[in-house]
Amino acid sequence: MRSKALPQVGSHEPQGANRRDRSLIHESIDERIANNTFFVDSKAHIVLDGSICKDCSDKVCVTACPAQLFVELYDGTVGFNYEHCLECGTCLILCSHDGALKWNYPRSGQGVNFSYG
């Protein structure tokens, strides 16, 4: 009775890789984000009340946003630029201050268009 040969460790294609040139493997997160296109809606899908953020001690949105769209301003408030938002919801999940953030998906046809699906 013959047994099936086990696949070698590391012999499979990594998920999400371009099978022809494996280019995705060698791109940093910043390079992948730079390939996305954005259809900026005139109506912001995220509204931030930066004055509420003034009382926040950790301002986790500033460090957690993968697109780096939140900025702590000189007066302790937080500023936000929605135009290049990845719509991941990280800010909404991590914000612990009620009313500081209002988040909705952009209108149909607006927002981010991911290059890698």
What does this structure look like?
It is a single chain. The chain is of the alpha+beta class. It has a domain at 48-117: Alpha-Beta Plaits, CATH 3.30.70. It is 17% helix and 15% strand. It has four helices and six strands; from the N terminus they run H-E-E-H-H-E-E-H-E-E. The protein has helices spanning 29-34, 50-53, 60-64, 90-94, and strands at residues 37-39, 46-48, 70-72, 78-80, 101-103, 111-113. Strands 1-6 form a two-stranded antiparallel sheet. A two-stranded antiparallel ribbon has the order 2-5. It is globular.
List the helices and strands and how they pair.
Elements: H1 29-34, E1 37-39, E2 46-48, H2 50-53, H3 60-64, E3 70-72, E4 78-80, H4 90-94, E5 101-103, E6 111-113
Antiparallel strand pairs: 1-6, 2-5, 3-4
Brief summary of the model shown:
By secondary structure, this protein is an alpha+beta fold.
Count of β-strands: 6
Compressed to H and E, one letter per element, the order equals: HEEHHEEHEE
CATH topology of the domain at 48-117: Alpha-Beta Plaits
Anisotropy-based shape: globular
Number of H/I helices:
4
How do the strands of the widest beta sheet line up side by side? Answer: 1-6
